[in-house]
Amino acid sequence: MLHISGFDIFLIKFIGLLTLTVLRLTFHMNEDKKKFFLDKHKQLINFINATPELGEVIFQGKSLEYHSSKRGLDELLKAYNDNNFDPIALNHGIKRLRIGSYSSDLIWDHPNIKPKVEFSDDIIDLLESSFNKILNETSFILNKLVRFPDSDTLVNKSGEWSYYSFYDKNTNEIEQHHKQCPIISDILKKLDLNTKFGFAFISALTKKSVIKPHQGSTSFRKRYHLGIVIPEDNVLKIRIGTKWVEWKPGKAFSFYDSVEHEVINNSEKPRIILIFDVWSPSLPKSVRDFFNSDKDLINYGIC
């Protein structure tokens, strides 16, 4: 005959009570999160009413006008219930939902933006004319680099992608880095820099490194590259869509990293370049101005 001691009864009751408490906490947490997303959805509707051009903005493959609808809200809540998070965003410590089974890395887009590669404009002229000074002030850089967040997922095992950033993830200047690179700092401060959706950093890729095909999260940024230290013992190149571009010391170009791209460094030496993003000139001014002052919509779908 099964004998149940007083302690066993106590333990069963305790486990039952603990389970009930956890279920209640989970319920309240889910309800709080649902309210959070409902508030964000109402906020989205208000934003579009105030700035109608926002409705044309593409977020995760669909217009913000669509996301502001009842169906858009249902897809947002379902993504949260399914714990469907963007793995690339997670690399950067961002818990962004993938809404409506969206799987592309391109999060923010606009129908006015037509990505292309360019080799001549005022910014390129400024970079190339400043090359020798930039080269001199970055001679120390290899000792200051830190591993880029996407290095583990995008770079081959024997390679490494590292960087030296001029802004933190909250778009604040990293003052010490600006002081150490005054020429670069002065150039960046003259530009219509897009730190809301983009970056500004010195990028290094170790010898025999390959960055796998990938695409950036937005076409709102137009990206510039300036070759700083480019080894001559092999070809170092980047594929942008179907076009291959070789880096050269002191030569710059621009492109949209929302287009799939990959990088090859078959050299026995590291490659060092300057990278920064400006606002796409094709983005409507009202949209750009909104996001420049916005602290909420940029985080739509982020827990």
What's the story with the biggest beta sheet? Answer: 6 strands, antiparallel
Q: Give me the CATH superfamily of the largest domain.
A: B-lactam Antibiotic, Isopenicillin N Synthase, Chain
Our estimate of the beta-strand percent is 15-25%
> How many discrete domains?
2
Distance between the termini: 53 Å
Taking pLDDT < 50 over at least 5 consecutive residues as the criterion, the unreliable ranges are 21-29
* Helical run tally: 10
Notable features of this structure?
303 residues; alpha+beta; Jelly Rolls; 2 domains; four-stranded antiparallel beta sheet
Describe the structure.
- This protein has 303 residues and is an alpha+beta fold.
- It folds into two domains: 6-111 and 286-299, no CATH class; 122-279, Jelly Rolls (Sandwich), CATH 2.60.120.
- The chain contains ten helices and 13 strands.
- The protein has a six-stranded antiparallel sheet, with helices on one face.
- A hairpin with a 2-residue loop joins strand 9 and strand 10.
- The longest helix is centred in the first third of the chain and has 45 residues, at 6-50.
- The N and C termini lie far apart (53 Å).
- Mean pLDDT is 90; it is low at 21-29.
Quick recap of the structure?
The protein is an alpha+beta fold and 303 residues long.
